[in-house]
Amino acid sequence: MLMYPDEYRVMFEIEDQYWWYRGVRALLKTWLDRYAPRAAKILDGGCGTGANLQLLQQYGAAFGVDLSEQAIGFSRARGIPPDRLFVASLNELPFPNQFFDLAISFEVICNIPDDAATFCEIARVLKPGGRLIITLPAYQWLWGMHDVAVGHQRRYSTRDLREKITRAGMEIERLTHANALFLPMIAAERMTFRAARNGRAVRSDLTPLPHPINAALSALFTTEMRAVSKFDVPCGVSLIAMARKK
Prior knowledge:
There is one protein chain. It contains 9 helices and 7 strands. The relative contact order is 0.17. The protein has a single domain, classed as Rossmann fold. The protein is about 40% helix and about 20% strand. It is α/β, with parallel strands linked by helices.
């Protein structure tokens, strides 16, 4: 399921500096420095408007796939080479078996109705020993307007995610919650949404913030995500997993 069209424009405009994206990229960079082979072939599954794909280009040949032509257009506007971008489903990847050393997918597999098939398809295009790094939304009870706006089909428990990754032929190396610092605030907002949802316009949490607030949130979240790269967190708004193909 695709995001609401205007969400791609908002993402393109703010994701370079927005606190959530900066924190996630801090964790991604830490793991890339540690685990990405030299001159790696990397898949960005659900590349959106391309900011993560720009980072991945520093580690090898990075290819972006997204179901939205609008998102791919924004990625091209960032200067991503056209031959590295594909409009395609993550359940029908246009690559041969065992093509990639590494795959990432951030908050995308949750949008796909048959997510179990998605994990199998990503495993198909990974080389033996290749890694998958993903983030997904946690706790179905946190369902809110943001989930609707960005096209989520579900939120995940650690048990559900572990089972689907394992069934796809990958072994989990890390599985942890993240975004624990903001869990109380986001939980309160989601409870408010459910209490007063009638008549409210659907929009995501991606809202431009005043610079001092965004800078403070960025510092907090980046610090947390650097810690998450080393240590497990028992609760949080998101789940982060790193798995390796057997």
